[in-house]
Amino acid sequence: MTAEPTRLVVIGAGPGATGLLERLVANAPELLGAQPVRVTLVDPHPPGAGRVWRADQSPLLLMNSMAEDVTMFPDETVLVEGPLAAGPALHEWAGETGAPDVEGRSFVSRQVQSGYLSWVFDRVRAGAPPNVTIDVVADRAVRVVDGPDRRQLIHLAGTTEPLEADVVVLALGHLDAEPTGEAARLSAYAQANGLTYVPPAYTADLDLAALRPQQDVLVRGLGLAFVDLVVLLTEGRGGRYLDDGTYLPSGREPRLHVGSGRGVPYHAKTGYRLAGKPAPLPRFFGPEQIDALSGPLEFRRDVWPLIAKEIGWGYYHELFTAHPERTTLPWAEFAAAYAEVPWYGTARVDLVASAVPAEEDRLDLDRLDRPLAEARFADDDAVQDALRAYVQADVARRNDQAYSADLGAFLALLSVYAQLPRLVGSGRLSGRSQVEELDGWWHGFFSFLASGPPAFRLEQLVALSRAGIVHFLGPDVRIDGVDGRFRACSSAAPPVVEADALVEARLPRPSVSATADELLRDLMASGQGVEETVDAVPTGRLRTSGEHRIVNRNGEEHPRRFAIGWYTSSRGAAAFARPRTNAAPFRMADRAARAVLSALVAGVGSATP
């Protein structure tokens, strides 16, 4: 008699869910044996690509990573318990399948990435062992409840008959949120005064029709969401860039007055490879150093000095080994001295000054973080000139291999990011520090340095500035409602700009208390889910255990419910990663997959199909 299959339902079918599925399939022979399992993924969007990477979005929207830096398959560097299953990175897949115009260092459209992700999903499904079947339901899950024998009943938006499962995993990806705090106040102000307010959201999903041609629009945020917004409101409305680097408007563009806390856009991606050998990483921020930290910890006080020193190690390793003519010491001598001095204090500063003659070759993380911190501008023309010069200098440096030490710093940043789950999982950071410094400042700093757009997007930004489409506001921009309009001003620049429209060019922060997701709202309202708190400080995330189990309001871990993603305690930010970096997403997915498979094996009873 054939055994009834146990059933696993994964809510979400985007890259995060696909990465989990790859690890489920890889680990199944070891942990399931011959036990039959039926896996059902529930998502209204296409499997593999999901909502964010779906094919039906503007072909003008690009990835912000080079094709050779994107893979869905863990390679030999990834330290996991389960077996590795090699597969092609994005550019290798393109070469094998004949996808057009994809080279290793190209920035492909999200439509091309959608094709890769869909192919990965199909390959993983086809490679499942015979006892594991995988199907997809194109619907939206709105509620999960305990049924008879603790079976999980997943209610869907499009049918009255719930799905039954032995185990359920929430892999919801990036979530929309209802406006709270300042966003709620500005939204109410806009409604009361007939203004247009666009709260934080995924840019490709925005209805931008309300932004009229040649209308003055305030834009807060200069990161990746801003880049997408500009693309859709310029080229997306018929404008085009000429061969001489200028922009020819279509006349349908609004005038964008843009600013942020730093006042400058994210740094461009580098256009070169390392000139020397990669630095041995981690060196100052690895498992040994993290475990040696005794809590309670403050991120900026206790952890940042180790991280900064690690970034400096990557930077100076490349500078000394690839460009020794710009240093006065052999690398080995500098490295030995650098290892002995703390990050803060005069000893490191003096060492670097004696070994690196040119100031432009010295790593200054404070200046990188706040490049306009001490700037003061006499008038608006000075603001525009300074911002264009800053952006052009950044593009030039990021395309000049003489400054390949910047790439060494970037690779050290990636190493740090891979180690942070060990720190977060230890529970030694204070609640305030985790929310304000780790989730807040550090994530913003990392994105600013490492997650910027291709360099040509910043060149286009300068062209838009010269064409009068983009107007820079400066740093420390404050926006408020005054006399029935929105008003923006900078503490460093004199211009005050008023407008009838305001766009928040950023994704919403994780907030399970304000989530727009119906399923998650129900979990929270019923007490089946709870917001993570650290030292009584709410983090905005869904509380999950170290094995990714959902925790209820009584502190109990549900044995049959799991959740993964940026919105959970695990903080898994990326679903795909750079090859050969022991990337954290693969390690998290492997741990979660093994926990889920173990729960399936240990489950009592089986859901009926």
SSE layout and pairings?
Blueprint: E1 6-11, H1 15-32, E2 37-42, H2 90-97, H3 110-126, E3 132-137, E4 141-146, E5 152-156, E6 163-165, E7 167-170, H4 181-193, E8 196-198, E9 216-220, H5 224-233, E10 240-241, E11 247-248, E12 255-259, H6 287-292, H7 299-322, H8 331-340, H9 346-355, H10 365-369, H11 380-398, H12 405-426, H13 431-450, H14 455-466, E13 470-474, E14 477-482, E15 485-490, E16 493-499, E17 501-504, H15 518-526, E18 531-534, E19 537-542, E20 549-551, E21 557-563, H16 584-602
Parallel strand pairs: 1-2, 1-7, 2-3, 7-21, 8-17, 9-12, 9-17, 12-13
Antiparallel strand pairs: 4-5, 5-6, 10-11, 14-15, 15-16, 18-19, 20-21
What structural category characterises the helix and strand content? alpha/beta
Calculate Rg over CA atoms. 25 Å
Mean pLDDT across residues: 95
* CATH-assigned homologous superfamily of the largest domain: FAD/NAD(P)-binding domain
CATH topology of the largest domain: FAD/NAD(P)-binding domain
Distance between the termini: 16 Å
Give me the count of strands: 21
CATH secondary-structure class of the largest domain:
Alpha Beta
Instruction: List low-pLDDT spans.
Output: 604-609
* β-strand amount: 15-25%
For the largest beta sheet, what order do the strands appear in spatially? Answer: 3-2-1-7-21-20
Number of helices: 16
Tally of domains: 3
Helix content: 25-40%
Major beta sheet summary? 6 strands, mixed
- The outline comes out as globular
